[in-house]
Amino acid sequence: MPKVIDERRRRERIAEAVWAIVARDGLEGATVRAVAAECGLSAGAVQHSFRSQAELQRFAMELVVERAAARIDATGRRAAPDAATGSGASALKAVEAVLSELLPLDAERLAEARVWAAFSAAALADPALAPLSRRMIAVVEGLCARCLAQLRADGALGPAAGDALAAPALRALVDGLTVGLLADPSPAARRQARAVLHAHLESLRP
Amino acid sequence: MPKVIDERRRRERIAEAVWAIVARDGLEGATVRAVAAECGLSAGAVQHSFRSQAELQRFAMELVVERAAARIDATGRRAAPDAATGSGASALKAVEAVLSELLPLDAERLAEARVWAAFSAAALADPALAPLSRRMIAVVEGLCARCLAQLRADGALGPAAGDALAAPALRALVDGLTVGLLADPSPAARRQARAVLHAHLESLRP
DNA sequence: CCTTTTATAATACGTTTGTATTTTATACAC
DNA sequence: GTGTATAAAATACAAACGTATTATAAAAGG
């Protein structure tokens, strides 16, 4: 054995190279050779870690979901203790901050959203990727539900806003704002997206 | 000249073949040969109508926007006379019906949405397609704005719902619901999407 | 009727793709 | 220390791609 290398780390490094290329050139730019060059390996090394390109793409998309789910879980937990103390107004601000982190409002999250959009589009034609699309949506909706539960606990939610449709609606709003920001990530559009999210949360108040 | 053929019609027929393939196999399935086979032509004939594949894809995406804009314009105009007569409740129902036509609730519009998602993803990596993405969003938001104006004229809009953010918010909601239905087009998900749209419009009432 | 023009078809070509195969070099076992 | 197993690199190869080129056939003009 030439080097005793952590195979898991290696696979993740390659997946991250896939992300970088996809964010820049789209999924069709992520050829085996391009991915290998992106992380300073030979094509043979990539082939050693992934039997086929399809397996590589599936792993890269799985890792996106996994990382995003972990991050969302962390921010969701972070918001909860924050707001339990004060009035409804501060809870609303905390929830707004948490949900803002789902939107592509900075360069890093814009890249993430571009990668995710590319994979989601690929999932429409590849049944092996479709469950990952659904899982990501479920994760986002879960965060929305937790945010709404937080608001409800703080009395920042009106009576009509508490039904089972509030979380799917909030998820749709966030995803729709993301779609808009992908097409137009200008500062003006970012301001508007933030304002729309703010207004929606305000409209839920009692 | 072998046949005196309407060049515009021919280009549209080829573009429609692109849509059929993209809806089924994604954009990377729309090779010149596959497109030619889809509409019963030879690859040479396709090349005669489109200098390059990039030009073909751009035309196909332009035609999607053009057709969608025309359809949206027509349905928007159709809704207006409907609701001006009755109370706010009937206006709300009419608007709900109009906006429902934007959602992929049947097979035809699901195919349309799949095509649009594929092109939108391609636009992220191809600056020549990006303006078409933005235009489509503007068209949808325009319909949302007209629907809201209709509701306002019929007194079916609360005071806080009338600001400039209502149309962008409604557009985001519709696009977000579309994203969800693309990942999960099951009857249950369709029911929920309709319910979310209904609840959102209800929440705008005075 | 013959020439010309042009849409279509067929073929050819160079490139790039994913992947299989071979070669090389290195770290561990005995 | 030597042999062996394996990661990594290099190379090879068939398939598919976009596109250029050539050939064919059919309608219009004189």
Q: What does this molecule look like?
A:
The structure is a homodimer of 206-residue chains. The model of chain A has no long low-confidence stretch (mean pLDDT 91). The first copy, chain A, has two domains: 1-51, Arc Repressor Mutant, subunit A (Orthogonal Bundle); 60-203, Orthogonal Bundle (Tetracycline Repressor, domain 2), CATH 1.10.357. Chain A has nine helices and no strands. The first copy, chain A, has 206 residues and is an all-alpha fold. The radius of gyration of chain A is 19 Å and the shape is elongated. In chain A, helix 5 packs antiparallel against helix 7 and helix 8 (166-183) runs antiparallel to helix 9. The interface between A and B is large, with 45 and 45 residues.
Q: How many DSSP-defined strands of chain A?
A: 0
Query: In CATH, what is the class of the largest domain in chain A?
Result: Mainly Alpha
- Give the domain tally of chain A: 2
Give me the strand/helix succession of chain A.
HHHHHHHHH
- Number of H- or I-type helical stretches of chain A: 9
The biggest beta sheet of chain A, please? Answer: none
The SS-based structural class of chain A is mainly alpha
Q: Could you give the distance between the termini of chain A?
A: 66 Å
Strand % of chain A is under 5%
Keywords (chains A, B): DNA-binding, Repressor, Transcription, Transcription regulation
DNA-binding region (chains A, B): 31-50
Domain HTH tetR-type (chains A, B): 8-68
Protein name (chains A, B): TetR family transcriptional regulator C-terminal domain-containing protein
